[in-house]
C-alpha cells in the first residue's frame, strides 16, 4: 500500500515538474475556485430556511409597519424581502403569528381569508369543519368556473347558515359569483353559458336554489337576471335570421354565377342585387278533412274496380234515428174552480169552449257519422317570402384585324375594337336560368331582372394596349438585335478571313526571304569550299543550321510525328 501511494506521489510530482508556470497558475486558480464554491454551498445549506408569514406581498408601508411592530412585540425574528414579503423562522411561528394578526385585525386587505384556519391544533371543532368544507367547495367551484374557455377569472362566495330545528326558521343557502370574461368572449350575452355556470354552482352546493344565486361580471352587471334578457334574445334571434338570409343569398349567388359564368365567361356576368325575404315565424297548421266512407272496397282479384261503382261510397252512415209523431183533435179541457164558485178562465177563452180543433207534430232526429282526418302540421323553421334578383351581362369586345392578320391601331396607338351586345334571346335564356335557380314564383311576388349592360373596361383595354405595344416593341428590338448580331458576325468572319489571308501572305513572304537568304548562304559556302576559303559563321547562324539539320533528321526518322506537328500549327493559325 505504501509503495502504491509512493508511486502515485512520484507520478504527480513528475507531472507537476513538467508543467509550465502558466499551467501551474491555472490549476491553482481552478482549485481555489472549486474550494470557494464548496464553502459557499455549505454556508447556504447550513443556513436556516425561512417561511413566508403571508402568501402575498404587502406594498402598503403603513400595514407593513404595523405588522413588523407586532412581530417585534412578540420577539419574533423576521426578514423583509425585496418584493415586500415577510419571512419568519419556521411554520410553527408563522401559524402562531397569523392567528395573532387575525385576532388583532392586522391582516392586510386582499389576503386569503381562509389562511387563518391553516393552524395546526390537536383538536378541531365543528365550526372549523364547516369552514373547511365551505372553503373546499368554494375553491373547487372557482377552479371549475375559471377552467371554462370564456372565463378569465372567477370569485365565489358561499353563505351556509346554521341548521335550525324547524325548516321554516332556516335561512336559505346563497351564492354570489363574480366572473371576468375573456376579451372577445360572448359570455355576457349568451344565456346558455350563464345557465351552465348557474347549474354548475347549484349542483355543487347542497340546498342551493336557483333564485339564491347571483352571477355578475367584473363591472357589477347581473348576468343571470333572465327577466331582462328578452331584448337580448330578440337580438340573438334577429342575428340568426340575418345569418340564415346571408347564407341563403350567398348560396344562390354562387349557383347563379357558376352557371352563367361558365356560359358567358368569368368577367361578363355580375349580380347587381340578390335580396331574399324570409318568414321565420313558427307556424302550426291544423287541417280537418272529411271524405266519403268506402262501403265496398276494391277486390284485387277482379279486373275492375269495385270502389268506383255506384253505391260503393257513401257520404255518411246513420248511427241512430228517433221519430216523433203527435196528433190531437177535439175541444180542450178548461178547468173550473171549486163547486159553487166561478172559474178563473178568462172571458176570451170561455167563448172558445164550444169550438173543436186539431193539432199534429212530427219530428225526426237522425245522427250521422262521417270519415274525418285531423292533421297537425308544423311548418319549416323559415320560409322564403320574396326573392328579388338583378343580373347584368356584358357583351363581347373583339379586336379588329387587317388583311395581313395584324391588329388595327388607332391614331393614339390604341387597338381598334368592335363590340357585340348580348342578344335578346340570350337574355331571355339567362333570365329563365336565374328564375329556376332562385325558385321563382309569381304568386310570391318575386322579381328577376336580367339586363344587357356595357361594363367599364377602360383600364383593361389600356392594359391590353400597353401589353400589345410592349410586345411589338420587344419583337422589333429582338429583330434589330438579331440583325445587328448577324452583321457583327459577318463582319467578324470577314475580318478574320482577311487577317488570315494577310498573315498567310506575310508568312509566305518571310519564308521566301528566308529561303533566298539560305540559298545565298549555301551558295557562299559552296563557293568558299570550292575555293578553299574558310568562312566564319556567327553563333546564331550555327544554331539555326543545327536546328535545321535536327528538323531534317527528325523528319526523316519520324515523318508521322512531324506531320502531326504541322497539322497542329495549321489548326492554331
Concise overview:
The chain has helices spanning 2-18, 21-46, 61-74, 91-103, 126-146, 191-204, 230-264, 347-350, 424-438, 458-531, 539-557, 559-572; strands at 51-52, 78-80, 86-88, 151-159, 173-181, 208-217, 269-279, 284-291, 293-294, 313-314, 317-330, 357-369, 371-378, 383-393, 396-399, 417-420, 447-452. With 573 residues, it is an alpha+beta fold.
Largest sheet properties: 3 strands, antiparallel
Strand order of the largest sheet: 1-3-2
Based on DSSP secondary structure assignment, what is the total number of beta strands? 17
Low-confidence stretches: none
Cα(first) to Cα(last) distance is 92 Å
Rg, please?
Answer: 61 Å
Please estimate the helix content: 40-55%
**General shape:** flat
Alpha plus pi helix count: 12
Which structural class matches the secondary elements? alpha+beta
Strand content: 15-25%
Estimate the mean pLDDT confidence.
Answer: 77
Task: Please write the string of helix (H) and strand (E) elements.
Answer: HHEHEEHHEEHEHEEEEEHEEEEEHEHHH
Describe this protein's structure.
Helices cover about 45% and strands about 20% of the residues. The protein has twelve helices and 17 strands. Strand 2 (about 80) and strand 3 form a beta hairpin. Helix 7 (about 230-265) runs antiparallel to helix 9 (about 425-440) and helix 11 (about 540-555) crosses helix 12 (about 560-570). The longest helix is centred in the C-terminal third of the chain and has 74 residues, at about 460-530. It starts with a helix and ends with a helix. The mean pLDDT is about 75.
Amino acid at each position: 500500500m505504501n509503495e502504491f501511494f509512493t508511486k502515485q506521489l512520484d507520478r504527480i510530482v513528475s507531472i507537476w515538474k513538467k508543467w509550465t508556470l502558466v499551467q501551474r497558475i491555472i490549476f491553482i486558480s481552478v482549485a481555489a475556485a472549486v474550494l470557494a464554491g464548496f464553502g459557499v454551498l455549505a454556508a447556504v445549506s447550513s443556513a436556516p430556511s425561512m417561511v413566508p408569514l403571508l402568501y402575498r406581498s404587502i406594498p402598503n408601508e403603513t400595514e407593513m409597519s404595523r405588522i413588523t411592530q407586532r412581530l417585534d412585540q412578540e420577539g419574533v425574528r423576521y426578514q423583509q424581502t425585496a418584493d415586500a414579503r415577510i419571512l419568519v423562522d419556521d411554520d410553527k411561528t408563522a401559524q402562531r403569528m397569523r392567528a395573532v394578526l387575525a385576532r388583532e385585525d392586522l391582516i392586510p386587505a386582499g389576503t386569503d381569508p381562509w389562511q387563518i384556519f391553516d393552524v395546526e391544533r390537536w383538536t378541531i371543532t365543528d365550526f372549523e369543519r364547516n369552514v373547511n368544507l365551505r372553503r373546499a367547495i368554494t375553491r373547487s367551484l372557482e377552479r371549475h368556473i375559471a377552467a371554462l374557455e370564456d372565463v378569465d377569472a372567477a370569485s365565489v362566495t358561499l353563505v351556509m347558515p346554521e341548521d335550525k330545528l324547524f325548516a321554516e326558521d332556516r335561512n336559505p343557502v346563497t351564492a354570489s359569483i363574480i366572473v371576468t370574461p375573456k376579451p372577445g368572449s360572448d359570455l355576457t350575452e349568451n344565456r346558455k353559458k350563464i345557465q351552465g355556470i348557474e347549474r354548475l354552482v347549484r349542483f355543487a352546493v347542497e340546498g342551493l336554489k336557483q333564485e339564491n344565486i347571483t352571477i355578475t361580471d367584473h363591472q357589477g352587471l347581473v348576468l343571470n337576471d333572465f327577466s331582462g334578457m328578452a331584448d337580448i334574445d330578440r337580438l340573438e334571434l334577429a342575428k340568426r335570421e340575418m345569418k340564415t338570409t346571408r347564407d341563403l343569398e350567398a348560396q344562390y349567388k354562387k349557383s347563379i354565377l357558376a352557371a352563367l359564368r361558365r356560359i358567358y365567361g368569368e368577367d361578363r356576368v355580375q349580380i347587381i342585387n340578390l335580396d331574399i325575404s324570409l318568414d321565420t315565424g313558427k307556424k302550426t297548421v291544423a287541417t280537418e278533412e272529411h271524405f266519403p266512407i268506402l262501403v265496398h272496397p276494391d277486390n284485387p282479384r277482379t279486373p275492375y274496380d269495385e270502389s268506383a261503382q255506384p253505391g260503393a261510397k257513401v257520404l255518411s252512415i246513420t248511427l241512430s234515428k228517433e221519430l216523433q209523431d203527435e196528433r190531437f183533435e177535439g175541444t180542450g179541457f178548461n178547468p173550473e174552480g171549486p163547486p159553487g164558485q166561478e172559474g178563473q178562465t178568462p172571458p176570451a177563452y170561455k167563448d172558445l169552449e164550444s169550438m173543436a180543433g186539431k193539432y199534429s207534430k212530427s219530428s225526426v232526429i237522425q245522427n250521422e257519422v262521417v270519415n274525418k282526418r285531423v292533421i297537425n302540421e308544423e311548418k319549416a323553421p323559415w320560409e322564403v317570402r320574396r326573392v328579388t334578383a338583378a343580373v347584368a351581362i356584358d357583351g363581347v369586345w373583339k379586336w379588329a384585324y387587317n388583311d395581313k392578320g395584324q391588329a388595327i391601331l388607332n391614331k393614339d396607338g390604341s387597338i381598334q375594337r368592335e363590340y357585340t351586345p348580348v342578344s335578346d334571346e340570350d337574355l331571355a335564356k339567362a333570365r329563365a336560368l336565374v328564375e329556376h335557380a332562385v325558385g321563382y314564383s309569381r304568386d310570391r311576388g318575386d322579381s328577376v331582372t336580367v339586363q344587357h349592360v356595357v361594363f367599364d373596361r377602360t383600364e383593361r383595354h389600356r392594359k391590353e394596349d400597353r401589353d400589345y405595344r410592349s410586345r411589338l416593341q420587344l419583337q422589333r428590338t429582338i429583330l434589330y438585335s438579331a440583325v445587328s448580331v448577324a452583321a457583327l458576325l459577318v463582319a467578324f468572319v470577314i475580318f478574320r478571313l482577311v487577317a488570315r489571308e494577310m498573315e498567310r501572305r506575310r508568312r509566305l513572304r518571310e519564308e521566301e526571304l528566308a529561303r533566298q537568304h539560305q540559298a545565298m548562304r549555301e551558295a557562299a559556302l559552296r563557293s568558299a569550299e570550292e575555293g578553299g576559303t574558310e568562312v566564319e559563321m556567327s553563333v546564331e547562324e550555327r544554331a539555326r543550321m543545327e536546328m535545321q539539320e535536327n528538323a531534317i533528321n527528325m523528319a526523316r526518322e519520324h515523318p508521322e510525328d512531324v506531320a502531326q506537328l504541322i497539322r497542329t500549327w495549321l489548326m492554331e493559325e
